[in-house]
C-alpha cells in the first residue's frame, strides 16, 4: 500500500493522471490487446430480445460484425495466415492470393498488412464495384476477371490459385473452401459459445458458404455435449438442405460442385453451395431448414425495427433459421446463431429499397409478429 501511495504521489507531482494506479497493479485501466489480431474473435453473444420474447426461447447470436474487418471472416483470415507462416508455406513479405467476391478478401488484406505480407484478390468483374473499391483502399492488389464457370481456367478462384503457384515457397493460395485452417478457426468460435453460455445451450443454427463456421462450431459443441442439436439453414439455389435430409454428406459428391450455384437464385450472399467442401464435410449436422429470400429480407427489417440491429443477408437468414429451430424445439430452449456481418456491406442489394422493389422483395410486415417465417 505504501509503495502504491508513493508511486501515486510521484506521478501526481509529475503531472500525470494517477487514476491508472488505482485501477490495477500494472497501471492499465482495461484490456489492452496486441495489434489487430487481438481485436479478432471473442465477440459478444447478444440476446436478441424481440426474437426471444416472441418465440419463448433464448435466441443468442455471436456479434461477428464487431470484428475489425466487419465480419466473421477475420477469424478465418487470421488462422489461415498464422498457420501458413508457422509451417513455412508463407514467408514474411510474401504474397497471399484468394479468389473471392466477399468479406474474406477484406479480412485477408488487413491481416496480411499486419503480418508484413501482400494480398492479391481475384474477383469477378460483375461483383459490386464498392467491394473492389474497398479492397483497393485497404491496399489489396485487385484483379477483376470475366465471370466464367469454375471449370474455366479464367474463373477467379483458378486465377488466384495460379498466381500463388507462380511464386512457389513465398506465396500462399488461401483457398478458404478447402483449407481446414478455416474449420480450426471456428473450433475457437465454438469454444467461445460454450463458455459464454456456460454450456447451457440446446441448439446451434447457421447457413454454410465454405462450411467452416458450421463445421468448427458443431465439432466443438458436440465434443462437449453430443445432445446439442446442429441445424443448417439453406438459401434458395443451394443443395445442402437435400444433402442433409438424405444423409449424404460426403466428398464424392464433389462432381456436383461443377454445377455452380447461380448467383441469381438468391439475394443472400456468402451462404449456399452445391458441393461438399473439405470444410463442410467435417460438419456434424442433425437437421436442415430451407429459408427464402423473402424471409431473410423481412427478418433484416424486423431486427432493425425491433432491436436496432442492422445485419447482412446471411445473418438475417441465420435468424430465420433460429426462429424455425425455436418452433421445432418449443419454448424454454436456448438457441445460438451467428450475425456474420453488418448491413453496411449490403447497401446496393439487400438493403437497397429500389433493388428490393424491382425484385418483388420489398418488406411488407410491421410490428413484432413473426408470421413471415414459414412453417
Ligand atoms: N456470411 C457471409 C457474409 C460470408 O461471407 C460467409 C462466407 N462465405 C458466410 C456467411 C458463411 O460462412 P462459412 O463460409 O463459414 O460457411
TrEMBL record:
<dbReference type="Pfam" id="PF00291">
    <property type="entry name" value="PALP"/>
</dbReference>
<dbReference type="InterPro" id="IPR036052">
    <property type="entry name" value="TrpB-like_PALP_sf"/>
</dbReference>
<dbReference type="InterPro" id="IPR001926">
    <property type="entry name" value="TrpB-like_PALP"/>
</dbReference>
<protein>
    <recommendedName>
        <fullName>Tryptophan synthase beta chain-like PALP domain-containing protein</fullName>
    </recommendedName>
</protein>
<dbReference type="InterPro" id="IPR050214">
    <property type="entry name" value="Cys_Synth/Cystath_Beta-Synth"/>
</dbReference>
<dbReference type="InterPro" id="IPR001216">
    <property type="entry name" value="P-phosphate_BS"/>
</dbReference>
<feature type="domain" description="Tryptophan synthase beta chain-like PALP">
    <location>
        <begin position="37"/>
        <end position="341"/>
    </location>
</feature>
